[in-house]
UniProtKB/TrEMBL annotation:
Protein name according to UniProt: Class I SAM-dependent methyltransferase
Biological process per Gene Ontology, one example term: methylation
Organism expressing this protein natively: Helicobacter turcicus
Pfam families according to UniProt: Methyltransf_23 (PF13489)
SUPFAM superfamilies: S-adenosyl-L-methionine-dependent methyltransferases
GO molecular function, one term: methyltransferase activity
Entry keyword set: Methyltransferase, Transferase
Domain of life from the UniProt record: Bacteria
């Protein structure tokens, strides 16, 4: 199994200025307050292991994250009853407007997509099936990177503006509109799942109310030896700790009502696709140290000191990642 810890990260390189970070925090607050008015569920047990031994971990605006004492999973205990309200739109606006930028696409391609896709390609280099399916393909940078390596690519995305943006970048009709519904799966999507050699599910599983059933669905329908790659927010981590203590500064990681689960590795082993999926690759990394800096009100007041601390982020973060405190996890499963 291929294992990696730590991932170099530079906020400035992907245009995340202090002003941008503060605006994202403000936007996260506005969205949480907007959706707080919607009808909600009330979960009494962990959605992963079903244990009722849970304790409150963080309250972020009107939303409460609880921690399972059995599997250490963090879950949103009062999610919206109708989750589709979070993601559907008429194409005139996007829930992810910040990604609709040519300059940011180029930066994300170089600093985020290419390292991820390269990691997966290293594991898949001996696989003959070169069909790469990305579900929840966002702005298309992952598909772009995979296409450049010679893969045949197909994406599915529910956000119309992201879909249009990514197809412009890919120069073709590579991304189709769709939202994974395992109870009534789109025929075209299901056929692609059955035929794909690699299926990526980056930053999607945490948005779904039924992660166990979703992984089992993939395991049942994938080809033998095909790869399923998930990227999820991870707990325990420094970021979880910071978000809980500075809940009014949240802009990533614990993002209610969008992130329903922040997965522990124990929880992901419980999911495991009904025993049909084995882990062949793992990459743990994070941004917890920078989250700690950004949790202070005027974190960039002393700009010189802020820059110096930021430059120390990667070596400090790698220590955290190697000591079970990473806040992101990529797992590569093989059927």
């Amino acid at each position: 199994m291929l294992e990696k810890y730590g991932k170099a990260f530079d906020n400035k390189a992907i245009l995340r200025t202090p002003q941008w970070l503060k605006m994202q925090s403000k936007n996260a607050k506005q969205k949480a307050k907007k959706f707080a008015k919607e009808e909600k569920e009330s979960l009494k047990a962990c959605p992963i292991c079903e244990s009722e031994e849970v304790v409150e971990f963080a309250k972020i605006y009107a939303f409460i994250y609880k921690e399972c004492q059995n599997c250490q999973n963090l879950f949103l205990s009062n999610p919206l009853k109708d989750l589709k309200k979070l993601y559907t739109n008429d194409g005139k606006e996007s829930a992810f407007e910040c990604y609709l930028s040519d300059a940011l696409f180029t930066k994300r391609l170089e600093h985020i997509a290419k390292p991820k896709v390269g990691f997966i390609d290293e594991i898949a280099k001996n696989c003959e099936n070169k069909l790469w399916l990305d579900i929840g393909s966002g702005g298309g940078e992952n598909l772009y990177a995979a296409k450049a390596l010679g893969y045949e690519v197909v994406g599915y995305e529910s956000d119309l503006k992201l879909l249009q943006f990514s197809n412009e970048k890919l120069k073709g009709d590579y991304v189709k509109q769709g939202f994974l519904d395992i109870q009534n799966c789109d025929k075209s999507l299901l056929e692609t799942i059955k035929n794909a050699g690699i299926i990526t599910f980056f930053n999607v599983l945490e948005h779904l109310s039924n992660p166990k059933q979703v992984l089992e669905f993939f395991a049942q329908n994938m080809q033998k030896n095909a790869l399923l790659v998930i990227e999820v927010p991870r707990h325990p981590s420094l970021s979880s700790y910071v978000n809980a203590l500075a809940s009014d500064k949240v802009y990533r990681h614990l993002i209610p009502p969008f992130h329903l689960n922040i997965f522990s590795e124990k929880a992901l082993k419980i999911l495991g696709g009904g025993g049909q999926l084995k882990v062949v690759g793992k990459w743990a990394f994070g941004q917890g140290f920078m989250d700690l800096l950004h949790s202070f009100k005027d974190f960039d007041k002393n700009k010189a000191l802020y820059e110096k601390l930021s430059q120390l982020s990667n070596p400090i973060q790698k220590i955290l990642d190697a000591n079970d405190l990473a806040d992101f996890l990529i797992l590569v499963f093989q059927k």
